[in-house]
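Kindly review this record before class:
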Amino acid sequence: MANLTIMRYCLIPFLLLIYNLSFGQCKTFKIAANGDTLNCTDFNGLKQGKWKVHVDPLRGNPGFEEEGVFKNDKKEGVWRNFNLMGDIMAVETFRWGLKNGKSQYFTINGIEREENWRASNPNKAYDTIDVADPMIPNKYERVIIKVDGSSLKHGVWKYYNPMYGTVTHTEKWVLDNLQGDQPEP
């Protein structure tokens, strides 16, 4: 009787471990040269983990490659875009599959512009955020916004002269509303 009880206590955690590991499996995937698992599609058909995407040139549009992480079929974290020669074209940050935070865009000569975005959680109808008062430093006002599952321009946008890396002008955005457009001296 004691052996049967011990077997039950050993078998139950083992079965739970096998059950949990089965959800981390990929239905389709690729193995990278360094052994990493790439382009994993889970058993629900959702993209998960590290991905490398290759897009061939088509109808005059240049092809590109991008790499980053998918979480439940949505881009998450930092994504990098490259032209087919391997030059960096963009570094974008995502949350819930939407742009969130800093995004930078480049030409062959250097940085072209820097944007800031705010993604709203598509699973919530409303969101509360802090908005800085442009007239009074360190003063914030809580604002309730209706969520439509999109990214809003939010923060400072900088435009650069790619040849020299100097800022040509800046824009200040608050929840998709332009607050100020200033050329740089």
In short: Confidence is low (pLDDT under 50) at residues 15-23. The first helix runs from residue 2 to 23. The helical segments are 2-23.
